[in-house]
Amino acid sequence: MSRLFDTLGRRALFLFDPETAHGLSIKGLKSGLVPTCRPAADPRLEQVVAGIRFANPLGMAAGYDKNAEVPDQLLGLGFGFAEVGTLTPLPQAGNPKPRMFRLEGERGVINRLGFNNEGHAAALLRLKARRGEGVVGVNIGANKDSADRIADYVLGIRAFYDVATYFTVNISSPNTPGLRDLQARASLAELLAAVLAARKEEAGRSGRSVPVFLKIAPDLTPDGMDDIAAEVLSHPLDGLIISNTTLSREGVCDPQAKEAGGLSGTPLFIRSTAVLAAMRKRLGPDLPIIGVGGVSSAETALEKIRAGAHLVQLYSCMVYEGPGLPGRIVRGLSALMEREGVSSIADLRGSKTDYWAEKA
Ligand SMILES: Cc1cc2nc3c(=O)[nH]c(=O)nc-3n(C[C@H](O)[C@H](O)[C@H](O)COP(=O)(O)O)c2cc1C
Fold first, then answer.
1. Which CATH number characterizes residue 15's domain?
2. How far apart are the C-alpha atoms of 312 and 326, rounded to whole Å?
């Protein structure tokens, strides 16, 4: 896909407020107006992670396709996997608008959407109707007013078990009051036990064990990271996604930075990569980690892998770079493999974990 298409598309979409522009981009993907550009298969980028075969290590992060409207179109842009959601059992409207802001000079985004989504039933119908076979993860959450948040995650596992390639248990959105408290050790132990027991039951019924990842915040203290690592290692969890958006505004000058909500994009890159490396050191070399936060190029994607990630995801930088970005990153990764002279991207994993962990 040409850079001209991306530049013109961005100019047009930036005439609208960010949430309207997001809706138009989904419509564009649905209508087929956006050309697909799947990069040529490159065996050096293929990996099996948590038992799933990924054609390349770049995924679409949660929050773009909240209602599972366009997962196959996203795969058509060159992503090796797409994550839909966050989905809550019941539909909910989210916070009052405006609730999404561009920090243009710094290539960042602030959102306080608050899990606006159409709920399990609507997304399930769409996922059941999918004809594509690519990797689609389902990110599950809890309704804001739920009396039993853990039960909401269990409902998510049960509802989407037959259509999800993997699950993400999202306890790190800063926009649902109290949600991040589930990262505290006792609550996390209870949540993981309930979710993984539901997975075990569903696996027994269906004969297929669907991997479960846990998505965490980048705003953790060293003690908080220790607690999460201890719980993760004592449960049969398949991996971590690091990280969600940050509440920090450190080093951000854009006037929009005063808006409440989670910050993502380029200003999140260092913080999220440092937490990823710090967790990699706590978890050992093997547990799958998906690195997210500020990925904007093949170089930044590879840096997450060098920090210890198996796979990476992005969202915010596509707002600035357009739908051609995933294809460019995947082709760029192939070029970097050529330059490094390695036969598998996995060979570069963790080569800079110590360097990044020191920044945490
Ligand atoms: C507008 C917006 C909405 C998001 N919604 C969700 C969500 O529903 N669930 C979730 O787990 N993460 C959500 N995220 C977080 C992203 O998945 C990702 O973790 C974060 O933005 C960092 O990646 P990035 O810098 O590439 O955007 C959202 C991010 C943005 C910008």
1. 3.20.20.70
2. 11
Q: What is the pLDDT along the chain (360 residues), one digit of tens a residue?
A: 578 777 878 888 888 899 999 999 999 999 988 877 788 899 999 999 999 999 999 999 999 999 999 999 999 999 999 999 999 999 999 999 999 999 999 999 999 999 999 999 999 999 999 987 899 999 999 999 999 999 999 999 999 999 999 999 999 999 888 888 888 889 999 999 999 999 999 999 999 999 999 999 999 999 999 999 999 999 999 999 999 999 999 999 999 999 999 999 999 999 999 999 999 999 999 999 999 999 999 999 999 999 999 999 999 999 999 999 999 999 999 999 999 999 999 999 999 999 999 998
Full residue range of the structural domain in which residue 28 is found: 3-357
Nearest CA to ligand 1 atom 21: 264
Task: Return the residue matching tokens 């099996």.
Answer: 48
**How many domains does the structure of the chain reveal?**
1
Specify the pTM: 0.98
Strands 239-242 and 262-265: unpaired
CA atoms of 354 and 278, how far apart (whole Å): 8
Atom of ligand 1 nearest to the CA of 244: 19
Catalytic residue annotation: 173
